[in-house]
C-alpha cells in the first residue's frame, strides 16, 4: 500500500468531513468583523460624528487583531477596566496585536478626529484608559517578554503586565523595578513613573528604561533612546501617554536572589499612633535595600489596624537587624514576614477578581512624615460603611531621589513617600456619599503634600497639571507641539499643545 497516498487520502477525508464546521467558523469570524451600518461616535472635543460603514470596515480588514463594535462577542469584556464604577461604552475597540495594528488604529483616529483612549492593564482608577463613544485602542493582546540574561536586558511588548515581566526575568535571577500588583500594565506604570518594592535600590521603572518603540499621532513608528530621538525619550519618562502609544519597552535588569524577605505585620488600632511614629522615624534611616509601606486600614470583614508592608533584598545575614525592630513597633496581631519568592511577593497584593470592586483614591507626595501629618491621618480616620478604607505612606526615596529633577520628565525626585487615601467597595454599591466623605478627609491631608503622581490623577485642571510638572512643563509643551499638536492623545494627565 502507498503510505503517502494513504496519508494524503486520510487528510483529504478529514478536511472534507470538517468542511461544514470550518465554513461555520469562517462565517462566525466574518460576523464578528463585518460592519453593517454607519457608527455614531465623538471627536476629541466631544462633537458628534458619523463614521461611514465602509471606512470602519476598511479599518477592521486592516487589523490582524479584532475590531469590536457594541454587540459583538467580547466587546463587554474588552471595554471593562479595573474600577467597576467606570462603565464606559466606546464606539469601537481595536484590539491590537502589533505596531502595524496600532498604526492603523491611530491613522483612523487621526483621519476621523476621534476621541482616543489607550488601555493596557486597565488600572487607571479614574477611567482614563477607556472612553464613551470614542476609539479604545486595546493593547491587551500585545503581551510578550523577551530576556537577554547575558546583557541583562528585557524587552516587553506594550500590552504586557508586570507579572509577565517578573515571571520571565526572575527565571534568570534578574529583575527591574515594577509595581506591587502583578496585573498592572507595564505601559501606564512606566510612562508615569513606576514605583515598587525595588525602586529605592534600582530607581523608578522609567529610570530603568533604555528605549521605547512608539507610534506617534502621525502614525509613524519611532525608536526613542538616549541616542535616537532623545527629546522624545526624555518626555515619555514621566510624560505618560501624551506623545504616543508605546509598543515595545527595553529595560535594564539587575541581579536579585529569588528568595527575599517580605510580608505584612499588623497591630491593634489603639497602638496606631506609636506604630506610625516608629514608622516615620525608622524609614528615614532605612537602607536602599529595605522598602516599607505603612499606614492604617479599616475593612468590614476584619476591622481596623495599623500595618507595615516590608520587602528586604539586602544580605540575609543582616535581615534580623532590620526586620526585628519592625515587629517590636507594637504588639502584632498578624505577622507573615519571612522568606518568600520574589514573584510570589509581587503577586501578594493581586485582586482575584479585579473588576469586582469600585475604587476611589486621592494621593500626593510628601518629603517626610511629620507629627502633624500623623495627627491629621489619625484624627480623621474612621470606618466607612460598606467600604474598605486605607491610608498608606508608600516608601520612595533612595535611588529615586538621586536623579536630577530635569533628567526625565518625572520631576518629583524630592518625594520620600506617596501619601494615599483609598476607598474600595463591592461592585453595584452606590458609594457617592462615601466618596464625598473621602474628599473631605483628604482636604485635611492634602496640605502635607507637594505634587501628585500622574498615574493617580482625578479631574486635574490644566493649571494643576502645569504646576505638577514643575520646571519640566514648558519642555513637555514643546514636545507636545512637535509630536501631537492636535492633542489626539488627551486621555491622560494631559499636557495641552500651544500651537
- State the low-pLDDT regions, or none: 1-32
Q: What average pLDDT do the residues reach?
A: 93
How is the biggest beta sheet arranged?
8 strands, antiparallel
Strand content: 15-25%
Given helix and strand content, the structural type is: alpha+beta
Q: Radius of gyration in whole Å, from Cα?
A: 24 Å
What is the count of structural domains?
Answer: 4
- Residue share in helix: 25-40%
What's the CATH class of the largest domain, please? Answer: Alpha Beta
| Fold-level CATH name of the largest domain | Vanillyl-alcohol Oxidase, Chain A, domain 3
Described by the principal axes of the CA atoms, the overall outline is: globular
Label the CATH architecture of the largest domain.
3-Layer(aba) Sandwich
Q: Keyphrases for this structure?
A:
alpha+beta, Uridine Diphospho-n-acetylenolpyruvylglucosamine Reductase, domain 2, Uridine Diphospho-n-acetylenolpyruvylglucosamine Reductase, domain 3, 4 domains, eight-stranded antiparallel β-sheet, disordered N terminus
Q: Can you put this structure into words, describing what you see?
A:
There is one protein chain. By secondary structure, this protein is of the alpha+beta class. It folds into 4 domains: 1-33; 39-138, 2-Layer Sandwich (Uridine Diphospho-n-acetylenolpyruvylglucosamine Reductase, domain 2); 145-255, Uridine Diphospho-n-acetylenolpyruvylglucosamine Reductase, domain 3 (2-Layer Sandwich); 259-456, Vanillyl-alcohol Oxidase, Chain A, domain 3 (3-Layer(aba) Sandwich). It has helices at residues 3-33, 53-62, 75-79, 99-112, 162-170, 186-192, 199-202, 230-236, 272-284, 319-327, 342-347, 371-380, 432-445, 462-469, 473-483; strands at residues 39-42, 48-51, 67-68, 92-95, 116-119, 135-138, 145-148, 153-157, 174-175, 209-215, 221-225, 245-252, 254-255, 259-268, 290-299, 303-312, 334-335, 338-341, 357-366, 388-395, 417-426. Helix 9 (272-284) packs antiparallel against helix 12. The radius of gyration is 24 Å and the shape is globular. The chain starts with a helix and ends in a 16-residue tail after the last helix. Mean pLDDT is 93; it is low at 1-32.
Amino acid at each position: 500500500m502507498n503510505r503517502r497516498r494513504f496519508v494524503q487520502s486520510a487528510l483529504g477525508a478529514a478536511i472534507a468531513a470538517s468542511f461544514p464546521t470550518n465554513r461555520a467558523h469562517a462565517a462566525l469570524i466574518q460576523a464578528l468583523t463585518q460592519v453593517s451600518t454607519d457608527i455614531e461616535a465623538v471627536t476629541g472635543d466631544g462633537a458628534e460624528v458619523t463614521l461611514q460603514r465602509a471606512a470602519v470596515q476598511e479599518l477592521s480588514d486592516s487589523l490582524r487583531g479584532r475590531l469590536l463594535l457594541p454587540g459583538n462577542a467580547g466587546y463587554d469584556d474588552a471595554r471593562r477596566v479595573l474600577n467597576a464604577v467606570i462603565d464606559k461604552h466606546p464606539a469601537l475597540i481595536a484590539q491590537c496585536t502589533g505596531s502595524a495594528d496600532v498604526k492603523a488604529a491611530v491613522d483612523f483616529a487621526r483621519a476621523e478626529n476621534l476621541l482616543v483612549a489607550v488601555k493596557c492593564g486597565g488600572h487607571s482608577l479614574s477611567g482614563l484608559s477607556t472612553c464613551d463613544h470614542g476609539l479604545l485602542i486595546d493593547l491587551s493582546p500585545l503581551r510578550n517578554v523577551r530576556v537577554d540574561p547575558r546583557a541583562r536586558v528585557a524587552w516587553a511588548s506594550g500590552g504586557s503586565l508586570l507579572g509577565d515581566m517578573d515571571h520571565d526575568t526572575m527565571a534568570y535571577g534578574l529583575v527591574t523595578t515594577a509595581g506591587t500588583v502583578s496585573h498592572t500594565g507595564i505601559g501606564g506604570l512606566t510612562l508615569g513613573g513606576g514605583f515598587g518594592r525595588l525602586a529605592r535600590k534600582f530607581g523608578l521603572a522609567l529610570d530603568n528604561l533604555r528605549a521605547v518603540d512608539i507610534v506617534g499621532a502621525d502614525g509613524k513608528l519611532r525608536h526613542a533612546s538616549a541616542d535616537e530621538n532623545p527629546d522624545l525619550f526624555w518626555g515619555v519618562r514621566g510624560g505618560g501617554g501624551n506623545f504616543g502609544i508605546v509598543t515595545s519597552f527595553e529595560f535594564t535588569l539587575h541581579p536579585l536572589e529569588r528568595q527575599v524577605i517580605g510580608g505584612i505585620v499588623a497591630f491593634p488600632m489603639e497602638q496606631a499612633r506609636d506604630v506610625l511614629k516608629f514608622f516615620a522615624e525608622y524609614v528615614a534611616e532605612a537602607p536602599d535595600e529595605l522598602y516599607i509601606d505603612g499606614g492604617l486600614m479599616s475593612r468590614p470583614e476584619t476591622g481596623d489596624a495599623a500595618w507595615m508592608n516590608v520587602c528586604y533584598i539586602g544580605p540575609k545575614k543582616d535581615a534580623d537587624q532590620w526586620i526585628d525592630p519592625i515587629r517590636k513597633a507594637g504588639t502584632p496581631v498578624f505577622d507573615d514576614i519571612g522568606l518568600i519568592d520574589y514573584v510570589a511577593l509581587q503577586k501578594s497584593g493581586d485582586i482575584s477578581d479585579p473588576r469586582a470592586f469600585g475604587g476611589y483614591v486621592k494621593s500626593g507626595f510628601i518629603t517626610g512624615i511629620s507629627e502633624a501629618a500623623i495627627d491629621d491621618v489619625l484624627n480623621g480616620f474612621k470606618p466607612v460603611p460598606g467600604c474598605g478604607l486605607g491610608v498608606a505612606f508608600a516608601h520612595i526615596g533612595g535611588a529615586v531621589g538621586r536623579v536630577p529633577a530635569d533628567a526625565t520628565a518625572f520631576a518629583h525626585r524630592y518625594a520620600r513617600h506617596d501619601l494615599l487615601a483609598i476607598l474600595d467597595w463591592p461592585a453595584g454599591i452606590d458609594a457617592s456619599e462615601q466618596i464625598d466623605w473621602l474628599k473631605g478627609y483628604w482636604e485635611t491631608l492634602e496640605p502635607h503634600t507637594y505634587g501628585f503622581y500622574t498615574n493617580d490623577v482625578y479631574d486635574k485642571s490644566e493649571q494643576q497639571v502645569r504646576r505638577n510638572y514643575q520646571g519640566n512643563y514648558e519642555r513637555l509643551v514643546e514636545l507636545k507641539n512637535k509630536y501631537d499638536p492636535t492633542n489626539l492623545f488627551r486621555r491622560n494627565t494631559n499636557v495641552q499643545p500651544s500651537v
